[in-house]
Amino acid sequence: MGHKDAAIRTAILAGRFIKSSVGKVAEISHKGRDNIVTDVDKKAEAMIIKDILAAFPGHSILSEESEPRSGLAPYTWIIDPLDGTTNFAHAFPFFCVSIALEKSGRVVLGVVYDPIREELFFAEKGRGAYLNGKKIHVSKVKKLIDSFLATGFSYGIKRKDRNISYFRELLTRTQAIRRAGSAALDLCYVACGRFDGFWEMDLHPWDSAAGMLIVEEAGGKVTRFDRSPYSPYDKNILATNGHIHNKMSSFLK
I want to staple 119 with a disulfide (CB 3.0 to 4.6 A). Which of 4, 114, 148, 208 is the partner? Predict the structure, then answer.
């Protein structure tokens, strides 16, 4: 089984398990005041890691809820078993499984699966981006005032956090802004044209690795706030349809 088939299969299996667990959370613990993890996160992660290592025992694993595992091959799987845990814990239907594959430091594959809507976003480097098998593209909106944006806020948010200022500045210069609570899905929504742009601060590799590639392969642009090249190991991300990128960046710098 190839990387693509393995990633899609395990994302769907984990997603179906997560969907069947909505409203049945047995255990919630805290990694911070407002950063939670459930028993479902951990079980879904174990399913994904077991499946991937069974197929590719020499690969490395970087996943949100467990310690990194190093392998000998140049491949690293970057996994968020449940992006949008707080949403899931409250049965708010906006969460997903996110799986990316990195080869020698470059993301070459990304899968994001929304089990509630049964939407599978997928991209391979140089081969385009897809939603349930159909090719997707970013929107054609050219003016910031006409744009529909998304953002997210850090855990442990403080009154003076910069993103509150960014939110306030952009809110009056756009059509609307949403804060739905899953960076991976927000990125996929940029990729398929539902959002025109997305920005967030203080992310981790598993939040953005798959979604970043999906946006790029859908014709979008992904950088840091200052328009310099973005890596999933960077904290701050700006992803857009390309047309509004420079204008958004001017407010985020």
Answer: 114
